[in-house]
């Protein structure tokens, strides 16, 4: 019999923390490799699975080991209301780079140019997963697999290709950069192979990304409003792509 706590300590530094029932549920649905999962209340966790995730109930039952509540809280930075936590293997960068580079593409790639807010980055990954984007690329210093980003993404990093690249390494495809000074998005058909770039919360698009952009597009916004939140901007743009011209999910 393996010891889940010993496994946890052995693996924690090289794996991704799945914080809470929903993150674990999503990660399993999208094929994550999960070597260890613990809960302080296995009965409650499996009851949640019966109610919300019967498709992964058996996988959860096989994975989840009950540990004392104090042990659970000692393993995670912030206890989650569902008292479930797991560690997942981070998918290889090579496999993501191959997915991002593959053409023809059936759904856009989202680029966050030097995002600063980890919660925003997580929300964007959740959006990209929900709308079937090919991937989310970040530029700059933030690791898009940072635990706070993974928490914000609700375990949906495993449903899309998430990587950090430089502006010079962005995937192929026409680059549409979103900026309040651009042409109105509503007049434009976004192609499936689009690369959709969004600027940083503080400074907007970097000069490097602006220089590489094929088109500058704006979201409808009345005068006197300066800008939208980053994740909101991604939502509006991906929705515009999906509503008009994408194949059904
Ligand atoms: C919070 S905004 C950045 C605001 C920043 N102070 C600036 O000067 O651009 C973050 C990003 O969301 C996108 N964005 C926000 N509002 C937008 C709008 N009305 N039209 C197009 N893009 C927008 C842009 O990509 C922008 O760089």
Question: What does this 3D model show about the protein?
Answer:
- With 249 residues, the protein is an alpha/beta fold.
- It has 2 domains: 4-88, 60s Ribosomal Protein L30, Chain: A (2-Layer Sandwich); 93-244, SPOUT methyltransferase, trefoil knot domain (Alpha/beta knot, 3-Layer(aba) Sandwich), CATH 3.40.1280.10.
- It is built from 10 helices and 10 strands.
- The strands form 2 sheets. Strands 7-6-5-9-8-10 form a 6-stranded parallel sheet, with helices on both faces. A 4-stranded mixed sheet has the order 1-4-2-3, sandwiched between helices.
- The longest helix is centred in the C-terminal third of the chain and has 15 residues, at 230-244.
- The chain is elongated and about 60 Å long.
- The model has no long low-confidence stretch (mean pLDDT 95).
- Residues 178-180, 198-199, 201, 204-205, 218-219, 221, 227-230, 233 line the site of S-adenosylmethionine (SAM).
Which terms summarize this structure?
249 residues; six-stranded parallel beta sheet; alpha/beta; 60s Ribosomal Protein L30, Chain: A; 10 helices; binds S-adenosylmethionine; 2 domains; 37% helix; Alpha/beta knot; 10 strands; four-stranded mixed beta sheet
Q: Name the helicity range.
A: 25-40%
Let me know the average pLDDT.
Answer: 95
CATH architecture of the largest domain: 3-Layer(aba) Sandwich
| Computed CA radius of gyration, to the nearest angstrom | 19 Å
Number of helical elements: 10
Largest sheet: 6 strands, parallel
Quick one: overall form? elongated
Query: What is the succession of H and E elements?
Result: HEHEHHEHEHEHEHEEEHEH
């Amino acid at each position: 019999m393996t010891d889940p706590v010993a496994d946890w300590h052995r693996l924690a530094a090289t794996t991704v923390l799945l914080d809470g029932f929903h993150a674990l549920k999503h990660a399993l649905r999208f094929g994550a490799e999960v070597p260890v999962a613990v809960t302080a209340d296995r009965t409650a966790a499996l009851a949640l699975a019966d109610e919300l995730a019967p498709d992964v109930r058996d996988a959860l039952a096989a994975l989840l080991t009950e540990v004392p509540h104090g042990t659970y809280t000692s393993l995670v930075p912030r206890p989650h209301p569902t008292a479930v936590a797991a560690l997942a293997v981070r998918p290889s960068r090579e496999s993501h780079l191959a997915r991002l580079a593959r053409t023809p593409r059936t759904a856009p790639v989202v680029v966050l140019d030097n995002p600063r807010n980890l919660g925003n980055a997580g929300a964007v990954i959740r959006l990209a997963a929900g709308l079937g984007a090919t991937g989310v690329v970040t530029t700059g210093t933030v690791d898009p697999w940072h635990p706070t980003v993974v928490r914000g993404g609700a375990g949906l990093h495993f449903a899309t290709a998430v990587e950090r690249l430089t502006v010079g390494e962005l995937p192929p495809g026409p680059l549409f950069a979103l900026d309040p000074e651009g042409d109105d998005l509503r007049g434009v058909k976004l192609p499936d192979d689009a690369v959709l770039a969004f600027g940083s919360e503080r400074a907007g698009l970097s000069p490097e990304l602006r220089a590489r952009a094929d088109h500058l597009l704006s979201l409808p916004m009345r005068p006197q409003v300066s800008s939208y939140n980053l994740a909101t901007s991604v939502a509006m743009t991906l929705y515009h792509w999906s509503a008009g011209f994408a194949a059904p999910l």
